[in-house]
Amino acid sequence: MAKIFQVSARAGMTRVVEPIARRLLRAGVSPNTVTVAGTLGVLVGALGFGARGHLVAGALIVTVFALTDLLDGTMARMSGGSTRFGAFLDSSMDRVADSAVFGAVAFYLATQGDRAGLAAALICLAAGGLVSYVKARAEGLGMSANVGIAERTERLLIVGVGGLLAGLGLEPALPIALWLLAAVSLFTVGQRMRHVYQQARQVDVPGGRR
C-alpha cells in the first residue's frame, strides 16, 4: 500500500514540477545546482528552526525543500538523463539532509529533557543511514535491495507529521512518531538484508564468505 501511495503521489507531483523544471533548464540552472540548493534549504529548516523548537516552521521548510529531490530528478530526465556524478551528488546530499533533520530533532529533544525521545531520534539517525548503506552496498556487489516499508520518503513523512503535531501542541506526537519510525526503519534493514541474502545464496560459490 505504501508503494502504491508513493508511486501515485510522485506521478501527481511530477505533473506539477515539470513546468518548473523546464523553466529552470531554460534559465541555465543545472540539476546539480537544484540538488545543492535543496539540501541547503533543508539545513536551514532543520538546524535554523527545528533545532530551536520552531517545529511547525521547521517541518514546513524541510518539506518544501525536500521536494527538490523530485525536481532535480525531473530536470535530469529532461536534459538527457542523470550523470554518474549527479547520481552520486544526489545520494550524498540526501544523507546530509537526513542527518541534519534527525540531528536537529535529537538536539531539540535533548534540550527538552526527553531522554526517551532522544534515544528514538538517535536510533532513527543510525537506522536511516543503515537503510541507505545496505542498499548501496548491495548494488555495489551487483545485487539489489530496493525493498522495505520505510524508504526515505516514508521516513521524512513520519517525522514531519510528528513534528507538525508537536508544534501545534500535541507534544507526545513527536517521540511517538520517532519510536514508530525507529521500529519500521530497523524492520526495513532486516527486509533488505534478507533480500540480499536470498540473492547471494544463488551466486555465492562453495567455500566463499558467508
From TrEMBL:
Mg(2+) 1 binds at D69, D72, D90. GO terms for cellular component: plasma membrane. It catalyses: a CDP-1,2-diacyl-sn-glycerol + 1D-myo-inositol 3-phosphate = a 1,2-diacyl-sn-glycero-3-phospho-(1D-myo-inositol-3-phosphate) + CMP + H(+); 1,2-di-(9Z-octadecenoyl)-sn-glycero-3-cytidine-5'-diphosphate + 1D-myo-inositol 3-phosphate = 1,2-di-(9Z-octadecenoyl)-sn-glycero-3-phospho-(1D-myo-inositol-3-phosphate) + CMP + H(+). The chain crosses the membrane at residues 29-49, 116-134, 155-170. InterPro entries: CDP-OH_P_trans, CDP-OH_PTrfase_TM_dom, CDP_ALCOHOL_P_TRANSF_CS, PIP_synthase_PgsA1. The keyword ATP-binding does not apply. Keywords: Cell membrane, Lipid biosynthesis, Lipid metabolism, Magnesium, Membrane, Metal-binding, Phospholipid biosynthesis, Phospholipid metabolism, Transferase, Transmembrane, Transmembrane helix. It is a multi-pass membrane protein. Its EC number is 2.7.8.-. GO terms for molecular function: magnesium ion binding; phosphotransferase activity, for other substituted phosphate groups. It is found in: Cell membrane. Mg(2+) 2 binds at D69, D90, D94. It comes from the Bacteria. Its cofactor is Mg(2+). Pfam families: CDP-OH_P_transf. Contains a di-nuclear catalytic Mg(2+) center. A CDP-1,2-diacyl-sn-glycerol binds at N32, T33, V34, T35, G73, R77, T83. Pathway: Phospholipid metabolism; phosphatidylinositol phosphate biosynthesis; Lipid metabolism. HAMAP family: PIP_synthase. Catalyzes the conjugation of the 1'-hydroxyl group of D-myo-inositol-3-phosphate (also named L-myo-inositol-1-phosphate) with a lipid tail of cytidine diphosphate diacylglycerol (CDP-DAG), forming phosphatidylinositol phosphate (PIP) and CMP. PIP is a precursor of phosphatidylinositol (PI) which is an essential lipid required for cell wall formation. Homodimer. Belongs to the CDP-alcohol phosphatidyltransferase class-I family. This is Phosphatidylinositol phosphate synthase. It comes from Micromonospora sonchi. The lineage of its organism: Bacteria, Bacillati, Actinomycetota, Actinomycetes, Micromonosporales.
